[in-house]
Automatic annotation (TrEMBL), chains A, B, C, D:
It comes from Polycladomyces subterraneus. It catalyses: L-glutamine + H2O = L-glutamate + NH4(+). It is an enzyme of class 3 (hydrolase). The lineage of its organism: Bacteria, Bacillati, Bacillota, Bacilli, Bacillales. NCBIfam families: Gln_ase (TIGR03814). The gene is glsA. Pfam families: Glutaminase. This is Glutaminase. Substrate binds at S63, N115, E160, N167, Y190, Y241, V259. Its EC number is 3.5.1.2.
Length: 305, 305, 305, 305
């Protein structure tokens, strides 16, 4: 159902899309229409509200998938194992940075939301081979979104995989210290999880399942409560790349962005939100998407602080 | 009033004090008894509860004062001016680090909770001279704590001022780029605010005034609501030095620690908490204090996530 | 011919081999006898002198090959092209460091003696395919050493290639900025040049051809004079990893070391020197080899300073 | 005596002064005429040759003084003590960088030619108080230059001392680790040694005394041979800031520059050279001065490589 306030806010922030730039280093992403802007929200009563282009657009998860793989790795191994291999601290560095790793001996990625940490996490997802492991990630995404149709976009996958030089560099760096076992398999899993295609409504339902402490929209406890709480914390401290601090102050909602232009947001106890607008700011977050969420947070008093 | 659960948790975590070490680089701090552990809580109905040594100990704010000076600088100048001079992003680096500053041109401290950022903030507190500016900081602390007796501990001030080589190094670094005007005056203000002496109950009331969005225990709106919200966000993303991420996950309460062993915590809408235990972990946070707060957060479900 | 002083110095410094450690991260190297120590010198009159194990040992070039590939890339493309892609400055960082690259935009390896720079240089060596390019490097080594028998040790190559994670990480990092075209081909060339097997006498003759400003022992001008001078400069400023400064002070001879334990030294106008002793110090230089060369430099007044 | 080749080279390189910029961060330096260019050379037979403005200009040593204070500290304490407090390695970082220090525990300046290392060295110069220590430095400069008239320019000293924020920052950083005892006294000595005023001829004679392994123009052994050799090594590996590598390749002469535009050069066994031209390149070296020295090195075959 279209919601008047959401429509109004989309109209207000549509011009902000002009201040951003579509990611151009992944060819499959670079062809997206920069003026798109859509939002979906879903509340515990399962009511879905739309604004703007939400009903008609789909996009790939990209870094938003780091939240999913973290959930699954934690369910597979528990906190202790996962956090023995990746840290919990935010970092003021770009998501693809290597130098803090170089300063440590042995290196340990600072958190699961930067690429180094996310690849270690992906390498922890259980399964026999790439297909099985990606299948398990897909199953979780489908359960959280209550949508069995969700698939990997193979074209986006191939486009990214061919040019994943920096991620391959990071992965081989970690391999030297045995922090990743099979680099190419890990990259296959990681780039595929990034290429999972969703809609704003899917994201909103995923956000709600975290907001409901692991219960999906259908009421099933698909993720342990403690893990749902934990990933929301990471979304606050490092979900929006190295603009997470400012986002926490201006918006105050646990959220995770991807370079496709998607934003997953989860208001504890209250609501899941999915946003899409592919024109990015210089930190890699959706320009209009962030501002739309800020306006919504103020209008509906959604800040957790 | 002593509270059974608080007493029980103090008893449970008193042994943790043995895992920590009293800060030894400030001689006035190094003489503290490492086995001390106390907690005070205060709720909107003004009921104060104690556990352990809370009623009998006092200590200096140290880095906790960064919250106070940030509030005052924001009240003096507004967000735009303050954040043109200091950033909003957490950093994976130690509190006294210089190298991220060196990488930027011009340097801008990443956030107001690291020393570089805190000194810039202190330099922004209005007033004619050191005495006037420290007086204004004291007035704010007293109002937030509803305690007109709070004072600067001059002995601690002198001890720290004489050995403030690293902070002086940071301040002169910033001076080169005109980000601090008068280095020695700024240091005088900064080190004095660190030496403000409080009790656990004072901290709890300060925490409550932030938890009540700027209203003190007496109900007066002493801080604008938006500023009270903003500083709590910083407390989550960077209040516990470079262990803030882990603290957010394990405890989930906006908090700020100091090397004296104090912790100021503020549970939005619910409660202010003051803790003291001078034996520190290797990140500079009170060892037993953090664990006590974690147990309390679980027992009373205080996490914001 | 065995030389009394060389024998004496070998005897004096043989015990120093106990202070070092054979490189263990390359399995083919880790099996070397740590107590070996040999030296060969050759003067413009072609007289070869030996000390210690020189006549009986052979070893792979490893980083010493960076001198050879730099010579060939300069002969293939000229200074301007080569130094548009790699810098001329020494660095205080380890040879496999990435972080200075990350600080630059676009990254440019600081010099051709660190791994990042050496791989860019190897990618510049002309030839159609790995075999041809390695063949050209081998031809140059054979001409400089006046020894057509010199070959690549395929076992060492395979052993290193399989575990070249860090170099692969560096190469993919550079690939992202188009500074290396074909990563796997470059690695094949680079690791093969490292696995060229030589003797102390080979190294001494190679050193003499540089000392004679590009003329080999047979008198042929196989390298342009300006290039022979240029690579000796790099040997002084960055030939001994991040111990080059100390080596310049203590020894004062252009030299290049490898983790196999070899040292190539070239005394301008006077002499070529080849040393082998596989027990390394913590910077990756031959422990006894460096000390032997220091004693020899003092005895024969070989410092260029 | 004016020398035709020197005059010719000055004429050739005078236009290069337009590519540079006079240092503007020290007000006393910013007023220098950017078009000045002068050179003096002196050979063991004491014959002094001039070119350009050499006979009429004077200027302050600035970083060239780091060579003098290193000589004196080595004469005062010996190599072992000095190099326990400052390293011998070149660094790819700017002269006023702090971040490598921060990475070490405890920090040790990488070499005596960067500011951090030079201040540690100045703090080692013996003497009772600033005046005595500066007096001893002046005595050494006068002996090396065979010119008892050389003095500190007090106006330049005061101008630099007032704005020495970055050096003060570095000094307090080192003070925290007890690597400098009295910060303000060390800064007084350091900034005064930078303000010693000389001519091109003075520099040439200083260079000759190093070229003659410590014997001054008058034949007196004023510096031990080993120390004269040692400082020339530093001049090659780190004498020209972070352009030292390129300078070694292009020019091949031990040299030390200062931001005043002076260059001290010393050709082992052959010649001392003093150059002045205040327009600097972006690394802080005299633009025309470096090019003039490069032309002279080629013309007279002065490279040590």
């Amino acid at each position: 159902m279209r919601h008047p306030l959401l429509e109004e806010l989309v109209a207000k922030h549509r011009p902000d899309t002009k201040d951003g730039k579509v990611a151009d280093y992944i060819s499959a992403l670079s062809r997206q229409d920069p003026s798109l802007l859509g939002i979906a929200t879903v509340t515990p009563n399962q009511k879905v509200m739309y604004g703007g282009d939400a009903p008609t657009v789909s996009f790939t998860l990209q870094s938003i998938s780091k939240v999913i793989s973290l959930v699954l790795a934690l369910m597979d191994h528990g906190e202790e194992t996962v956090f023995s291999q990746v840290g919990m601290e935010p970092t003021g560095d770009p998501f693809n940075s290597l130098y803090k790793l170089e300063m440590m001996s042995p290196p340990k990625p600072l958190n699961p939301m930067i690429n180094a940490g996310a690849m270690v996490v992906s390498s922890l997802v259980k399964g026999s081979g790439v297909e099985d492991r990606v299948g398990r990630l897909l199953d979780l995404v489908r359960a959280m979104a209550d949508n069995p149709e969700i698939e990997v976009d193979e074209e986006v996958f191939r486009s990214e995989y061919e040019t994943a030089h920096r991620n391959r560099s990071i992965a081989y760096f970690l391999k030297e210290y045995d922090q990743i076992d099979d680099v190419e398999e890990t990259l296959q899993v990681y780039v595929r999880q990034c290429a999972i295609r969703v809609t704003c409504e899917d994201l909103a339902r995923i956000g709600l399942s975290l907001a409901q402490y692991g219960r999906s929209v259908t009421g099933e406890q698909i993720i342990p409560q403690s893990i749902a709480r934990l990933v929301k914390t990471f979304m606050v401290t490092c979900g929006m790349y190295n603009a997470s601090g400012e986002f926490a102050i201006r918006v105050g909602i646990p959220a995770k962005s991807g370079v496709s232009g998607g934003i997953l947001a989860s208001v504890p106890g209250k609501m899941g939100i999915g946003i899409f607008s592919p024109a990015l700011d210089d930190k890699g977050n959706s320009r209009a998407g962030v501002r739309l969420l800020q306006s919504l947070s103020q209008a509906w008093q959604l800040s957790i602080f």
